[in-house]
């Protein structure tokens, strides 16, 4: 890794540092997200150097070239983000919406939903506590920070469009979708019991 790093010019060394820091801060990179594109292609060009660098830290780079996504996976549970209840539910709803809407779109199209779609799914679960704007805004900011979604418009309006990035497939794998549904139903049942 050091040999590869030393053969890079100053600009490439800076790009290596920026890309590594972006992965450490955001966990995911998406080729289709404007501010990730350069980092994604740079990582692809120097993948072995990144693999060696992150393996020293106890991480592994998971790459899905079909969707253009990169995930930094850590072996340590101490680096796992703990989501609040509503953040978890919104993430799970977005994953279900991605799955549902992917059937109706072509491979080149973005998967888009609205804030109203999220509220409709949330209401469908019949959770007694309604989703308030503060919790929704907080969850959306968090998911945007981790490159799972992009927001177009004012998040406080029901017509606000949310682009669900394919990185969500890495956050919640396809084989886990049924488990996702069961988790949501379990949360809804617990809420009903309270």
Layout of secondary structure:
Layout: H1 2-7, H2 10-26, E1 28-30, H3 37-45, H4 47-57, E2 59-64, E3 69-74, H5 85-102, E4 111-114, H6 115-124, H7 133-145, E5 149-152, E6 161-164, H8 168-171, H9 177-193
Antiparallel strand pairs: 1-3, 2-3, 4-6, 5-6
3D architecture notes:
The protein has 194 residues and is an alpha+beta fold. It has two domains: 78 residues, Arc Repressor Mutant, subunit A, CATH 1.10.10.2250; 109 residues, Arc Repressor Mutant, subunit A. 54% of the residues lie in helices and 14% in strands. Strands 1-3-2 form a three-stranded antiparallel sheet.
CATH architectural group of the largest domain: Orthogonal Bundle
Measured distance between first and last alpha carbons: 54 Å
Report Rg.
Answer: 18 Å
Please state the structural category: alpha+beta
Major β-sheet profile: 3 strands, antiparallel
Might you state the CATH topology name of the largest domain? Arc Repressor Mutant, subunit A
| Secondary-structure element series | HHEHHEEHEHHEEHH
User: Reading side by side through the largest sheet, how are the strands ordered?
Assistant: 1-3-2
How many separate helices? 9
Report strand %: 5-15%
Number of domains: 2
> What is the share of helical residues?
40-55%
Low-confidence segments: none
Average of per-residue pLDDT values? 88
Global shape: elongated
- Quickly name the level 1 CATH class of the largest domain: Mainly Alpha
The number of E-state strands comes to 6
Quick structural summary:
With 194 residues, the chain is an alpha+beta fold.
């Amino acid at each position: 890794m050091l040999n590869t790093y030393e053969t890079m010019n100053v600009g490439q060394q800076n790009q290596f540092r920026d890309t590594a820091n972006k992965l450490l801060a955001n966990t995911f990179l998406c080729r289709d997200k404007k501010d990730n594109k350069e980092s994604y292609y740079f990582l692809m060009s120097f993948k072995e150097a990144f693999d060696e660098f992150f393996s020293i830290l106890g991480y592994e780079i998971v790459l899905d070239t079909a969707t253009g996504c990169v995930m930094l996976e850590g072996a340590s549970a101490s680096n796992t983000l703990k989501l609040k209840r509503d953040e978890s539910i919104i993430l799970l709803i977005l994953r279900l919406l991605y799955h549902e809407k992917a059937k109706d779109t072509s491979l080149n199209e973005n998967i888009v939903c609205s804030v109203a779609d999220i509220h409709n799914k949330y209401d469908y679960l019949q959770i007694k506590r309604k989703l308030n704007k503060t919790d929704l805004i907080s969850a959306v900011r968090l998911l945007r920070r981790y490159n799972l979604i992009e927001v177009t418009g004012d998040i406080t309006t029901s017509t606000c469009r949310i682009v669900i990035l394919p990185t969500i497939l890495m956050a919640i794998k396809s084989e886990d979708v049924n488990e996702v549904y069961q988790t949501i139903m379990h949360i809804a049942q617990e809420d009903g019991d309270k």
